[in-house]
Model the fold of this input.
Amino acid sequence: MSHQPASNATADRWENEGGSPLAESYPESLGITRRLTETYLVGGYSYTNLADATAQARRMQKQESGL
Done:
């Protein structure tokens, strides 16, 4: 009785149950652009503009201090 591997697949060709990963250029070929955006959280709201977040934080400080 000889022992034979179940398949000839190598580790570098292995694919998970989810299928093969998409090529890096695939989204771009569809016109999709990836952007990373900083988000500032103030009082339960999120802002993508630091000036807006700062203004809200100052308004909240004034409101808390009773001014």
User: Anything to note?
Assistant: The mean pLDDT is 81. Residues 37-67 form one domain. Residues 4 and 22 are 32 Å apart (CA to CA). The helical segments are 26-29, 50-65.
